[in-house]
Amino acid sequence: MRKIQITQFLLLIIIILLSSCDMNRKKTEEKGYTSKENFDQFYKAFFTDSLFQMSRINFPLLGPHTKNVGSTFGDSISSEWKEEEWTMIKKLFPNQDSIIQIGQNVYKRRINKTDSIVEERIFIENSGFEELQKFVIKDGKWYLSYYSLANY
Fold first, then answer.
1. Which is it for the CA torsion 58, 62, 65, 71, positive or negative?
2. Which of 11, 24, 130, 142 has its CA 20 to 30 A from that of 51?
């Protein structure tokens, strides 16, 4: 009889502990604390998988760029990218380099990282060429939130 009471007591403690863990997990999710995706893994997938890239951009995407309108007046400037005009962007820097040379052009890269925003700027000094990408974390996943491409 005493063994049954001890067994029931232990079973009750286990049930309480398990339900407590589940309640803590739910509270954490409600507050927005979710595990965060590794940026380096995201970055690699973003630039190698076109379907993944498209899934991690919320269109219309903010960012000025020159847009060919096919008229005699030339190009126009747009302040956002639409999904139908998007072409997969490729990674220009193969490693963690900050300077590379392609032909006569010397490209430089600057990266600013925080826990929730990563900003990558690629440019050719004194040329008018600049590519700016901003990635933000949303619900534990990284997304491209801004993309600007300028060539003055």
1. positive
2. 130
Question: Shortest CA distance to 56 belongs to which of 141, 118, 133?
Answer: 141
- Tokens standing for residue 17: 């502990």
Contact 137, 127 (CB under 8 A): no
Task: Return the structure tokens found at 63.
Answer: 């960012």
Q: What CATH number does residue 145 fall under?
A: 3.10.450.410
Query: pLDDT higher for 73 or 138?
Result: 138
Better pLDDT: 131 or 28: 131
Q: Which residue has the higher pLDDT, 41 or 73?
A: 41
Is residue 59, in this structure, part of any structural domain at all? Answer: yes
How many structural domains is the chain composed of? 1
Do strands 117-124 and 105-113 pair parallel, antiparallel, or not at all (unpaired)? antiparallel
Mean pLDDT of the region 122-129: 92
In a domain, 31, yes or no: no
Strand order in the sheet with 57-71: 74-81, 57-71, 141-151, 129-138, 117-124, 105-113, 99-102
Containing structural domain, residue 77: 39-151
